[in-house]
Write a structure and sequence with these properties.
Helices cover about 70% and strands about 5% of the residues of chain A. Chain A contains nine helices and three strands. Chain A binds a DNA duplex through helix 2 and helix 3.
Chain lengths: ~230, ~230
DNA sequence: TTTCGGTAAACTGTCAACAGTTCGCAATGG
DNA sequence: CCATTGCGAACTGTTGACAGTTTACCGAAA
């Protein structure tokens, strides 16, 4: 940005706090840190061979992203989603995604529609290959792309900020809801088709239907996991 | 949360970083710090009689809120809104607020509708009293309340996160756009009425119209301010 | 055996100091 | 007079240490 012909391959400009945040984000989303688990600043600093300063900044970053929360004078904990949280996030996603669908549909952005169709196709392929992990990834990617393709960074960012924790749940969703899988597939394809139709109302409605369906599945899954957990 | 009967009036539990963030936020939104201005950590720490640690955390907090941005190894700067940013924020607001209007309308939440009507009434009173500052505050409050009354904290938070900087612009808006003032007033009241009608489509449409109108005004105002600034 | 109280360890919030980089300015050369 | 180079000041990124609070453990009393 500053100097066009900037040639400085030496000297890593990325602060330690950023790479630390990335590392912790990965570990949380990957499930290495369980929800509700306490995150010890000093221990992590020691383990990474750095001081507590960058670790604190990394935690502040993750807190802003909603991945961890703070209890004053007690420390940071990995965020845990209650059913009420899940409902909130799905409502927010509905607000963002239905609007994104309207935007793309109204603009008649052929490139964007093509991209969405491609992801939907890959999603079906993953389902037929019974690749659960890939299915969950592509499912999330479809919705992320929907927001990204609006070319409104803030809208996409608002989506990403809250989708992270959800993706840890979606990994389980597919395993428990095989019977609804075909409905999910056609549901995604319907969204693309209705966006392509240029009828903004239909595009919005398709998106809303899909999310209404999805939240029902996730809440049922969450309930199922909770009752199973209460057994042991 | 931990101890129900917690009575410890002594010992201030609010960290220095939080109160520092609040102070800086106030100063930025109040215009004491100009957009693009550099924020010196050491200087602010000295001025507040604290060390740089809490100041850094406060800056991280404000950065997460979008009020400041960082240039690596150079420091923090007060965020400045380009017309493209303004457009992005208004689109995001449109996504959030139209959905909020739908939610409240669908739920038929009389208490929420009453609250919105009350704010709209105060807004008209401020306009008649020619109280520009109060008008700007109530205008923003109306939209904030619209999101808050959904009782979806994340939706409201997404609104608040991006409305802060806008409010610094809205302060100017009123001064330059007297002729459109009456349109703005009726526009707010229309939103309340259409929400109250229970017709979710009408509620959504009223909200969308209002924001389309508002962004036009703000962009024109921004253009006006820019050309005026180019003169000196 | 259970509950209460006290003590010690652990952890967060905060501070002061160091290292490397960037920025500004003056001296130098064209 | 203008561009360039070198130096010094200032600032960010990072570190290690200290103070106060919270947590956990252990023993004593009911």
């Amino acid at each position: 940005m500053a100097t066009p012909g900037d040639l400085s391959p030496l000297a890593d400009p990325t602060p330690l706090s950023d790479s630390t945040a990335e590392l912790l984000r990965e570990k949380i989303l990957n499930g290495d840190f369980a929800p509700g688990q306490r995150l010890n600043e000093a221990a992590m600093a020691r383990q990474l061979g750095i001081s507590r300063g960058p670790v604190r900044e990394a935690l502040a970053q993750l807190r802003a992203e909603g991945l961890v929360y703070d209890e004053p004078r007690r420390g940071s904990f990995v965020a845990a989603l209650t059913p009420a949280d899940v409902k909130e996030i799905y409502q927010l996603r509905c607000a963002l995604e239905t609007y994104a669908a309207r935007m793309i549909s109204e603009a008649g952005d052929e490139a964007a529609i093509g991209r969405l169709r491609e992801v939907a196709r890959q999603l079906r392929a993953a389902a037929e290959a019974m690749d659960q992990k890939e299915f969950a990834r592509l499912d999330m990617l479809f919705h992320s792309e929907l927001c990204r393709l609006t070319e409104n960074r803030r809208l996409h960012q608002a989506f990403e900020r809250h989708s992270g924790l959800l993706s840890t749940l979606l990994r389980l969703e597919v395993t428990t809801q095989y019977e609804s899988l075909d409905g999910l597939l056609t549901s995604h394809e319907e969204i693309v088709d209705d966006i392509a139709s240029g009828d903004v109302e239909r595009a919005q409605a398709a998106c809303e239907r899909h999310l209404d369906h999805a939240i029902g599945m996730v809440l049922a899954m969450l309930e199922h996991a909770r009752s199973a957990e209460a057994e042991n």
